Amino acid sequence: MTANAIRLSDEIMKVAITYATINSRSVPKQIEHWAKIGKTAEENPDLPYEFIKGVFLAKSEMDNGEVSEFEFRKE
After folding, report:
1. Among residues 41, 20, 44, which one has the least CA distance to residue 8?
2. Of 15, 37, 40, 71, which sits with the fewest C-beta atoms within 10 Å of its C-beta?
3. Does residue 28 contact residue 16 with C-beta atoms inside 8 Å?
4. What is the predicted pLDDT for the residue at 12?
5. What is the pTM of this model?
6. DSSP characters for 8-74?
């Protein structure tokens, strides 16, 4: 992956720093996160933010092996 310099407003940078700190991310990773969420939201305008976030969380859990098989109850 190559690094690219981009210009962002001071206001966006202040907010990105705040959110990055809260979410234990670097500022570039926070901006990447917003870009990923925003791109997905634009491609899927009918999906709510919480659903999109949940899909990314589930994907991350699967990638990290944090899943278990679901067993149906027999009645």
Report:
1. 20
2. 71
3. no
4. 96
5. 0.75
6. --HHHHHHHHHHHHHTT--HHHHHHHHHHHHHHHHH-TTS-HHHHHHHHHHHHHHHTT------PPP
Contact 29, 20 (CB under 8 A): yes
pLDDT in tens, the chain (75 residues): 788 899 999 999 999 999 999 999 999 999 999 999 999 999 999 999 999 999 999 999 999 989 888 888 887
In the chain, the amino acid numbered 41 is A
First to last CA, the chain: 52
What phi and psi values does residue 8 have, to the nearest 5 degrees?
-125, 150
59, 52 in Cβ contact below 8 A?
A: no
